[in-house]
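Sequence dictates fold. Next comes a concrete instance:
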Amino acid sequence: MESRKSKHDFHPVAPGIILIIAAPIFYYILRYGVDVPYWDQWEYVGFFDHLSKGTLTLKELFSQQNEYRQLFPNIIFVCLGRFTNWNVRYEMMVIFGMAVIVSFNIFRLSELTFKGSKWKKYLLLILANLLIFSPAQFENWLFGVQIVYFVPIVCLTTGLLLCYSSIKKQWIFFYCIVLGSISTLSSANGFLYWMILFPVVFMPINKSNMINLWPKILIWIFAATITLILYLYNYHTPGNHPAIFELFHDPLKSFFYFFNLSGNPVGFGNNFQRSFWSGLFLVAGYILFIAYFIRHLRDNELNRQLKVWILLGSYSLLTGLLITLGRVGFGVGQSFSSRYLAFTLYLVISVIYMASIVFEHRKKSVHPAKIHNYLFWFLFIFLILVQIFKYPASVNNLKAYHNAIQHAKAGLLFIHYIDHSKCQRMIYPANFAELEKRAEILDSLGYLRPGLIKSKVIEEIEGTDHLDADFGAFSKLRVEPDSTFTVSGFATLPYRNEPADAILVTAKNGNRQSILIAFENSGNPDWKISIPIHDIPKIPSEINAWAFDANTGKAYRLKNSHVLAE
């Protein structure tokens, strides 16, 4: 095990760089994070139900969730949810905090391994943080479940940093065992920690230290085996996932999937060719630098510098292989999923640091040395431009993802009164009856904000604030020859500068109450809805339209009313 004190002082510029680049993501989480359970999060409702009854058990927290055995993330979800009434925006903040930890770990590792000038370290830190805090991984920032994806890389980078620190060796070994256990029992790729960290914990192994290392190696293998057995205990493949043998049925598709996945962090949008070739060049560069490492294996200092980045890159590559194994059956297009950037971006970071270390090393033996500075600048400028060009489109994708969840939340609040597809397909496609049951549980616990709508009478939720605001207009009503009528208009929430989360169409009943007859949460400010005439309580009837805000549970009447005559 290696132990070495840093010869570099800690400079306040580094945390400043991290905070400046991370700040927009913090803002996006505050601005666009939606406080509502979404997709996989509905599987955790039972935790809070049993917690409120005092019946929550460790076995339940240990139980398999989809393909994951995520004991430690489940503990985070329950503890955080208990003190925040399960406001999932706090989970997003935990994800952000984990990203900050990873960023800091990478900075400290660069301080300990990269011997270039101070300004180059800062430039590399800028580039690394543009990748770590990219809005391109918008699903990870706005979906609290993604804590599962961040735990392994936090454990791995912390373990690498510990191995390069000056802490006593026995404590480093103990901490690394603990981190490995947390990593394995958090995510499907968490077990990779044991293999990746082995070379820095135990190597080099030689005759002089063989006797002393064997007991620790056996302990390491024993701990890894036990955690893997626990992870695989009573494990079953989810029925809605493709078979892992799909990888062998169509090797060419798997080939393209893997390289597309690897190149996505520096690809341009969902462009298959650019992502594929980016992945191919990144993997080729990674292999080239490993070859350089092997060629100079006797150079202990270079060995020490490159090893950590080789291992960091292997995390992305090995995880990419696992993703390909489990997901290629969904099609190559699925490799563009923004959530996978939490795994694959570290290949890019490892390659740029390995390139910089190799360039510095070759400057000592190759003349003229300027060529390596040119190569450094070319690599840096190219990757910076890629991130700059991707940034606006990534932010737009983040906003679109936010809008989709907002409209899904609107459907959830009206779950008792609307067509199943307008709620289920958007927020929990697995089982509508189960969704309805779990929504009632959360509502009874006070964990839905606002609560479920309890009546079809819209005056009961009419907003009395923003009286001077223009929410839009109910423009047209037209009777169709097929016993339906079409209504259309325009609706926004001006104080949020966004489309209404849902459009509510009402008809007056005999008591002059506005009764909900149609609901639309497609997310467009321009709306058009077709309604069967037999849904009207009485004819003639006054028809109104409302803009609904899912954050407050309030409805705001749009300008104009129309009368549906006989």
Remarks:
- The first strand starts at residue 472 and ends at 479.
- The domain at 458-564 is CATH 2.60.40.10 (Immunoglobulin-like).
